[in-house]
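haha ok so turns out i had the wrong file open the whole time. this is the CORRECT one, sorry everyone. sequence first:
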Amino acid sequence: MSFDTKWLDLREPADHAARDCNLLNAFINRLPADPHLLDLGSGTGSTMRALSAVRSGIRWTLTDHDPVLLAEAKRRAPDISVQQVDLARDLAAVLDIEADAITASALIDLVSADWLDALVRLADTRMLYIALSYDGSETWSPEHQDDAVILEAFQSHQRSDKGFGPALGSGAVPYLQKALEKAGYTVMTAASPWDIGSGLLMNTLADGIAAAAQEAGAGEAVSERWRLFRHKSERCSVGHTDLFAFRA
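then structure:
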């Protein structure tokens, strides 16, 4: 699956504000001098921009299957390296790239258990900083009678195949944490929820959730009723989790 630049730019301020600062600093503080980071599913480079705001001198290799997004990342940061890859098929080749740590954001809730097992195996003791994974929790204000129906359908859609096999959705972080700990990693996690007020991001989010819920069987009438109501909402919180893993 792919996301366009407009959506990625719209969500980036919320993503940056949501990242847990303590976990991010714990990762940054364990990096060596002149670190090289390998970012998976990079889009236009949001992870790079978030980390570069708190640590200078990082060398980056950004990977994505979408050449348009990578071209935009390169336009914004000409000194980075980019590689167009299919992470569903070419993960082993991607992780063969030498790097001090592996990063990703808003990615692992879209992938399967088998893909995460491969990530842990191929990480080969490198640190991982995996941020902004959907945890399945949403709180909208004010409440609506269809909230539970829409959320259940949306979560069902989250678990559908996004090109990586059956996605884990909100179960991705617990699964990855268990796999990493079994492989000898120390794992830290922290909540990184979106806190969104009324406006374009909330409306676009509601549109996407309603469309996914309808596709997963919530029904057109219910989905549309909920979507229109949510365009008048005051606030919403969408739960995410950040994860940092390292080998002592």
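The chain has a mean pLDDT of 96.
again sry for the mixup
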